[in-house]
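Pair request: fold both.
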Amino acid sequence: MSTTINVEGMSCEHCEQTVEEALRGVGGVTDATADREAEQASVDGDADPDALVQAVEDAGYTASA
């Protein structure tokens, strides 16, 4: 299953990496890819969307499912 979440505040490649690492730390995530230009992250796995949003927000970005 793939989930897309909206992420605001990414301005560079390091930001994308930070978001990806935060998402990969959520249980059930098998892979995550962030795109600062699209302001989105794509997540593979069966993680709870609310947990994904929380992980991104804990990393310092604004997110919504």
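--- second member of the pair ---
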Amino acid sequence: MRRTPIRMCVACRKRRPKGELLRFLLTADGFRIDPTGKLPGRGAYVCPDRPECWQEKKLRRFAGSRARALAEALAALLGGRDGQNTHLPAG
């Protein structure tokens, strides 16, 4: 029997199965969304279905001064305030 990996959202600190969270990387060029969860580098996870987790204030813990840019990127990717647009890019 395989165990399901558990990860924690950097914003709300809720633990969930890895597949339910969205992984992103902080790179020298900015942020990179990792829908596969397999890109190399230090990543963090955020709840894709909870818009309150995409707020700049909540993301400062991970992104520091670049939290605003990350919050805007997540809102654009995941869709407004209701979180209905959960279509992730393929690459």
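Observation on the second member. Confidence is low (pLDDT under 50) at residues 82-91.
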